[in-house]
Amino acid sequence: MIADRRGVSTPVSYTLTLSIALVLVSGLLIGGTTLVGDQRDRTMQSQLSTIGEGVAGSFETADRLAASGKGDPGEVNLTRDLPRDIMGTGYAINVQSDSSLRILSASLDVRVSVRMDIESDVRVGAQEPGGRVVIWHNTTASPNKLEIDDA
Amino acid sequence: MIDRGQTLLVGAIALAVLFVSLALVLNTAIYGSTIASQGSEDVTGGQTIALQSAVERDVGFLIEQAIEERPGSYDTTGDDQQEFVEDNVSKLDERYTQYYAENDRIVSIETTSPGDFERGGLIEHGTGTFAETDVTGTHVRNFRMNVTDVSGTFTIRFEEGGDFWDVNVSPAASGGVEVQLDPPGPTTRSCTTSETEPWINVTSATLDGDHCNALDFFEQMDGDYDVTFLDRSNIEGSYSLVANGSVTTDASETDVIYAVDVTLNERSTRVDYENTIRVAPGELR
Question: How far is CA B142 from the centre of its chain?
């Protein structure tokens, strides 16, 4: 029989092969997971930003309409339909004291801040889950405030 | 013969690629609806602003027409300017209601005399040296003049709370007319025309039809102001203005409508709006 040393290295080569396979597959899965996660975050951010800009626009319109009248500001109620969730996750709209909006996603820890250019006061800290909302000018409050509530 | 290890390797990589592809394909981010397109349907707030502008423009036109068609009768009983505007605002209201109903919006406008009307004085001077004109505690609108001859500096002084805004009209070096603003601050500004008999629209800030930034200062005055003509002997021509303050003038003065309050109401599925807007055509605040 011819001397055959190859049999000794078979388990070694199996081990090497499996290790390489494991490393490659793990790398692929980790990279893929990160990619998908980043994509979700970016999309969420962009969607929340769009919603935020829309709501801010309504606030600014309500502010302008309320201020345009003579004497006592009149009645202004603007209704908006917002999506109930973004990518299967709920979100909330938070009005800040510096007249900006903070939109928070419930689960993905994504938040977006939108500035508003308004002269009226706003009711701070209102946190409205998405859905149909009304942005209105509260003339019974002193001073008058712009508020956002469920419709 | 294919090595079992190699089969395992290829199989594992194939599975991994499969899992990652599935994750990418089923990623809900790809299927997220486009919110921006939904948002664009909501321009109702902007439509309300446009409606307000339309009402201001239409009622402003009615005020000018009322003054032209019923001169000198601001509030005589019947057939006066107020009745003209009130009746035509009712007709306008019907038109608006019909038009906007087609877009699922309920719109109404109304005004009631005499409570919603503000009296003003129309001061008119036809020709020759400018007449003495003094108005206190006022706003002005539609202040226009046509200069036929200017031999020195003529000044229209606007005074508000001790601040003077002097509009100086003088002959320009080129032979035309120069309008210069001397504001409370240090910087003056001016504009010139080569036209020797130009029209100057003080409230619209135009000199001979072109925009003149020397006349762009009304919005910087917050409250009522006084208007005085100084050095009138230096200028000849015609002028007219409508003022709502206390008028002393040698020119002709008649009572006219200065401004009208119009209550505008809009209801739709998206907007509830009610407000009173003040219409004073040609006035800058």
Answer: 12
